[in-house]
Write a structure and sequence with these properties.
The complex is a heterodimer of chains A (211) and B (387).
Chain A (H helix, E strand, L loop, with lengths): L6 H8 L12 E6 L6 E9 L4 E10 L2 H14 L4 H5 L3 H7 L8 H21 L11 H8 L3 E2 L4 E2 L6 E7 L2 E6 L8 H12 L7 E6 L2
Helix pairs in contact in A: 1-2, 2-5
Chain B lengths: L5 E2 L10 H12 L12 H19 L8 E4 L2 H16 L6 E5 L4 H12 L3 E5 L9 H7 L4 E5 L13 H10 L3 E5 L18 E5 L10 E5 L14 H4 L7 H13 L2 H18 L5 E3 L10 E6 L4 H10 L2 E2 L1 E2 L12 H5 L4 H5 L1 E5 L6 H20 L7
Parallel strand pairs in B: 1-11, 3-4, 3-5, 5-6, 6-7
Antiparallel strand pairs in B: 2-8, 7-8, 9-10, 10-13, 12-13
Helix pairs in contact in B: 1-8, 2-8, 3-4, 9-13, 10-13
Classes of the chains: A alpha+beta (211), B alpha/beta (387).
């Protein structure tokens, strides 16, 4: 098929595994929103004894990349302990899928984040979270590693686009080394806000572009 | 082997009509001279005659004189020449203000942005929820500094038609030049420059089963326009370069093969598809219900994403298009759907179906059924729209 997707991606897109909803899940998470494009929901059943994922399902309001990643990530997570599942990375998922076109990476990352968020949700619900850490430049930088530079399909930190990070009294200021009228500026801004704003002690996120 | 598909993306490009190819052949193999060789040898005279004839035939479809029509490489070049050419001619003499609509196609939109970078002021007119501009707002926006209004005849995505004659009348009254991008409407939606006061019109061949790489620009006699590509004196000294005579002939042939009967047939398919698709729950028509291109159906389906719909339809043998951000190279939702007040979500699930000569009545039933199945299957795996 003359598509930019690998055969494995297309196979998972055509026949996604573990789709649907778990009624009465032990944990769930929704990543993304209809307002900014793709959205994915992940549901978990967890054995409270050995913290093993006994069942996992996902729903997707997204493109082929999002659906296929949801399918593969749930396959990878099923039967693993929460700690093991937490270690599943987007890179692993992408490798199993036979690669993804750079421009479709962010839709795929969203599905992986859905899984991680669902695990976090389980830990929060069951008192497994350690103390809340205050947001620092380091925390922001770590989160920005999850924002893709769609030009090359690598994250903003790795592609050296993060010029400045400032954290002061609940306001996070990020300067991105791109012109404001860059093809992906609006998209990158949206994703940064989406990643930083949910931090418990952040009220405001300001994204600036150089020039 | 190429698998047989039902091609419903005729606003992207169309399949060449064999009759067009037949008409072009002579000018590849026998009369291949350039028109400027008319003083040197007889093959040059034949070439010149063929070019003149093609020009007269395309111009006639606009009600224009042959001297008012130049061939270009396509719509993109035509609109660039019209907008930047007028800006260069009048920018210093008259003023530096240009008016376009928010939902123009990229050649017009980005030509306007390029002018902005040079210090011009550009007003991007809003459109209503069906995609029409407000004529009163246009009238109020024109200032003594305004040199050009560029409003499309028909929209590339949602198919909405603008009132070209009324816009032209306002421009004439205010003494401002008017360019219209008729790429998607010419010649199916009649536009006669003897009746509509329009100064510049962009047209193209490849959307009416003609060859790719040829278009044209109507330039009303006396319109100030600066040539900005340098070279020879071809095309009345407005567009240099060796004349593309086979394509000009192909363009003329393609224009004449479009008939009102055929357009009516496409319109029947359009209306029937709209009727079928709106029976799918949570669907809505994008664009104007009646003032729209005769071959364009554009519908948004909630809770599902366009690229997913497209890939599933492709597996079933249908080729269509979407305004979803996931499908665009900039990851931005369609500026047209956003321009008509739609949100990101409406663009996310928008699908455009455009008909052409080689579509059959049964294609409508087949694609409607396939879309209903695909949307329903994708909704089953969507987290939205369940409660």
């Amino acid at each position: 098929m003359p598509l930019p997707y690998s055969e494995i991606v297309m196979e998972h897109f055509r026949n996604p595994r573990n789709v649907g909803r778990i009624e009465d899940p032990d944990a769930k998470a929704i990543e993304g929103s209809p307002a900014c494009g793709d959205m994915v929901a992940v549901y978990l059943k967890v054995d409270s004894e050995d913290l093993r994922i006994t069942d996992v399902k996902f729903e997707s309001y997204g493109c082929a990349s999002n659906i296929a990643t949801g399918s593969i990530i749930t396959e990878l997570a099923k039967g693993k302990t929460l700690e093991e599942a937490k270690a599943i990375t987007w890179k692993q998922a992408a490798e199993v899928l036979g690669g993804l076109p750079p421009i479709k990476v962010h839709c795929s990352v969203l599905a992986v984040e859905g899984l991680h968020a669902a695990i976090q949700n389980y830990e929060e619900r069951h008192g497994l979270v350690k103390e809340r850490v205050p947001t620092t430049v380091k925390v922001v930088r770590r989160r920005l590693k999850r924002v893709m530079n769609p030009v090359v399909g690598l994250d903003l930190v790795r592609t050296k686009l993060v010029k400045e990070i400032e954290v002061a009294e609940g306001t996070v200021r990020v300067v991105i080394d791109l012109p404001a009228d860059h093809q992906f500026a609006a998209n990158i801004r949206e994703e940064i806000v989406e990643k930083i704003e949910p931090l418990w002690d952040v009220d405001k996120v300001v994204v600036k572009f150089t020039e | 082997m190429v698998k047989k598909i039902v091609y419903l993306d005729n606003a992207a490009t169309t399949r060449l009509d064999e009759r067009v190819l037949e008409a072009m052949k002579l000018y590849f193999f026998d009369v291949y001279a350039v028109a400027t060789s008319q003083f040197g040898y007889s093959m040059g005279i034949d070439a010149r005659d063929a070019l003149d004839d093609a020009r007269a035939r395309v111009a006639a479809a606009l009600g224009a004189a042959p001297e008012e029509f130049i061939f270009t490489s396509g719509s993109t070049e035509s609109s660039n020449l019209a907008i930047k050419g007028v800006a260069m001619a009048l920018g210093e003499k008259k003023g530096q203000h240009v008016i376009v609509s928010k939902i123009e196609d990229f050649p017009v939109l980005y030509s306007a942005r390029a002018l902005e970078k040079q210090g011009f002021q550009v007003t991007y007119l809003d459109v209503d929820e069906r995609g029409r501009i407000d004529l009163d707002q246009l009238r109020e926006t024109i200032t003594p500094e305004t040199i050009l209004v560029s409003i499309q005849a028909a929209n590339q995505e949602i198919g909405t038609l603008q009132d070209v004659a009324a816009i032209g009348a306002i421009c004439r009254e205010k003494d401002v030049l008017f360019h219209t991008d008729a790429t998607h409407s010419f010649p199916r939606v009649p536009l006669d420059v003897r009746e509509a006061p329009v100064d510049l019109v962009t047209v193209t061949a490849h959307l009416i089963h003609g060859p790719k790489g040829v278009g044209g620009l109507y330039v009303r006699e006396g319109t100030p326009l600066v040539k900005w590509m340098d070279g020879g004196f071809q095309e009345f000294n407005l567009r240099p370069g060796t004349e593309n005579i086979p394509s000009a002939v192909g363009f003329a042939e393609a224009v004449e093969l479009v008939t009102p009967e055929e357009t009516a047939r496409l319109q029947d398919m359009r209306d029937r598809l709209v009727e079928y698709l709106l029976q799918i729950p949570h669907s809505r028509l994008n664009g104007h219900p009646t003032l729209r291109l005769p071959h364009n159906t554009n519908v948004s389906f909630r809770f599902v994403e366009g690229e997913s719909i497209l890939l599933h339809l492709d597996m079933r043998g249908f080729a269509v298009s979407t305004g979803s951000a996931c499908f665009s190279r900039s990851l931005e939702a369609s500026h047209v759907i956003l321009g008509i007040g739609g949100n990101h979500e409406r663009a996310h699930g928008s699908v455009r179906f455009t008909f052409g000569r080689f579509n059959q009545a049964e294609d409508v039933d087949a694609v409607a059924q396939a879309v209903a199945d695909v949307v329903s299957a994708l909704r089953k795996i969507s987290p939205l729209g369940k409660e």
